[in-house]
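Q: What changes when manganese (II) ion is included in the input?
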Amino acid sequence: MATVLHTGDTHIGFRQYGLEERREDFARAFLQVVHVALDEKVSAVIHAGDLFEDRTPGTEDLLATMQGLFTLKDAGIYFLGIVGNHEQRRGTQWIDLFESLGLAVHLRPQKPFELDGVPIYGLDFSGRRPITPPRCEGGVLVCHQLLDAVELDGELALEKLWHCGAQFVLLGDYHEHRSWRQENKLVTYCGSTERWMLDEKRNRGVNIIDLQNGRLQRHELVTRRFLYIPADEDPIQRIENADVQGAVVVVYLNTDKPTAAEIEHAGYEHGALAVRVRDVRVPTEQPAEPSVTVEFGDVEQVISEALAKKHFSPLAREIDQVIRDLTIADSNVDAEVTALLERAWRENP
Ligand SMILES: [Mn+2]
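A: The predicted holo structure follows.
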């Protein structure tokens, strides 16, 4: 029976720190994953969403992605995927385009893809509202959602996954590798393939899963080097003594000396690709001059109050709410607005 490579959160096209080198890193990580799939002789690469950083990847990134997909196809390895929140478009998705070219399969909840007799179901990102997984008897479910086991307000309850019938649930969205087992069922996040945020300190990798015996192996990737310098170390000394050539240097700081500018200077002087300085001090309550009040608390509230002063029709207000409601997935905005308009039309033809 089949062995699959489970990956996701590739974020191809992310020009991190405004650097072309970092954009290339994200595409390169995908091509590395493709080669891992070839080396491990898996039957399929299962992609759990966020292949792209956004819905409009550039041509260089599309080219790299398609080269990877052609390499898989030539090796007889399926590429099975779903849509993540980052790349989700209103209408035809990138994975649909690749599917129409014979390079990929867009996994669906109703009609599973059969891989060596194992049904594989997929559910595209479906917003941040609580969701119920589809029935996936004896198979694999692939989705891109936050579990309540990793975020308190995650929209998908881990408990529900034990009862959806799937033997394996392969997830994307959360960028760290995690896995849970119950009886002979496995739920796992593969993690991102390049560091998308500074917090993603652990080595990046992919899951290699044997669907016969449930064995999960991690395959670590070689990614851009990040050097983390904790607050209790002298950052300048560390930069001078370590090899920072081409690395992203991340400095946590709890003093005023050296300054961020001095640290950056030292880092770039020694060939760092990027230097990020994070002040980890908890801001102390200072009796500030109460001359200017700046509130960052609730931007939504401020917008709502400003809009309330405009003379919009109730319908326009409703449409505005749908568009700004973060619990409604972008791809559903069209449908929800259309429904509102149709209702208004029926009421006042
Ligand atoms: Mn992601």
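Observations recorded in class: The mean pLDDT is 92.
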